[in-house]
# Entry
Amino acid sequence: MKFIVDQQVEDIEMPENLKLNTFLQEFHSTCSHPECSFGFYGFAFGQSPFPVPKPIQEALIKNADKGAYAPVPGISELRNAISKYNKHYFRIDVSPERIYVGPGTKELIFNLLEVLHGTVILPTPAWLGYLPQIRFLKKNYHMLPTRANRKISPNDLRKLALRLQDRQKILILNNPNNPTGLLYNELELEEITDVCREQDITVISDEIYAQTTYNFSKFVSMGKIYPEGTFVTNGLSKSHAAGGYRLGYVIFPSHAIDLKKQFKKILATEYTAVSTPIQHAAIAGFEISKEIDEYFDITRNVHQIMGEYTYHALSAIDGIKITKPDATFYLLADFNAFAIDLQKSKIDTSQKLSEALIVHPYHTAIVGGDSLVLERSDFSARIAYVDYDGAKVYQNYLNNKPKSSSEKIEFVKNNAPRIVAGIEKIQRFFEDIKMTSSNISQNQKSSMMTPS
Ligand SMILES: Cc1ncc(COP(=O)(O)O)c(C=O)c1O
# Structure
């Protein structure tokens, strides 16, 4: 029997994150060197390593008997809890009616892109999840490359919007940002909002990393600055280390009543509702409690300690430019200063750089620039600093909180030796690349001087 695949599916590529998984798995199975048996230093996976908070786990067990379908937008207790959560943590006053629950923010962003007509503006570098969705939906889109500070330039946004003919433009704002770890401050959001108001741009503000902001009082939601034009998405995946629960939510703009009806049709057609026990469990995650608050505090402090270590250790390698993360568990490393040396070793794309780093003797997995919607020849990469045993590290932090800079460095060395060793491998890789490059140059010089 021959199955014919729909052309729409044939036309799209495997999303970059799945391509990356396959690549890493295949590497694992074919490498026969003894050192390969331990795998690789994992700077590629964007997953919080901590355990799911106990109250969520307990609520899930308690609600395992809930077999009935839930209402399409989510159960009212959960929407109420999310409303209070947003008021408490993000200082935005949204009624539960403006909140819809879905199976992860990835799905909700996809649903929003299905419902909203218009051209998508995608600032780059970007999380690897957006582009496959935009392509699948065959939407018009334009990249908006960021400048040296790696943030959206309001002027560039205005210039691009003026060129677009579409009746509606949709900006995907990811704040705090994956892959850079950077946070937009209030003024920057206001400047972007001015352009959005002037040019009638709708915003999807993906704030899935909001709760990881190291100096939490600095986080400002776009839903507060531009309430009439922003769809805010957030969920359990990063803040509560529960990506596998598949629960996210979207907050609709203040006057989007008609749109909510259209959205409901989409959700009802595609997945009816999120699993009912999961929704009950999520209530425990969004309710304001001392336990969850402490969990946020500890996890964001550990992310910050790991991030600062990674930032300083990578910055010490001559030539590498790094974003200094304000949030998340990522930073963006720019290796373009090595472009000529890399090219001499036949590494001329970021994909080839990822491949060269994963093999023996470096064993280091990164996400290369082409997966971050950068040019293929841009030698930038996302470095995730989560390769440690989250449950153990959580407990160790609780038992003995490091305070001084030297205690924090010790904490990383004791608790995340793979991060420390992985960075040393990256350093060694670039030392080797430079050495190979200078050997090639010397050989070329001496062959030019040798009389024929
Ligand atoms: C920026 C960003 N948005 C959305 C998601 C997906 O979140 P969810 O698990 O809620 O679908 C991720 C996950 O890696 C992400 O990094």
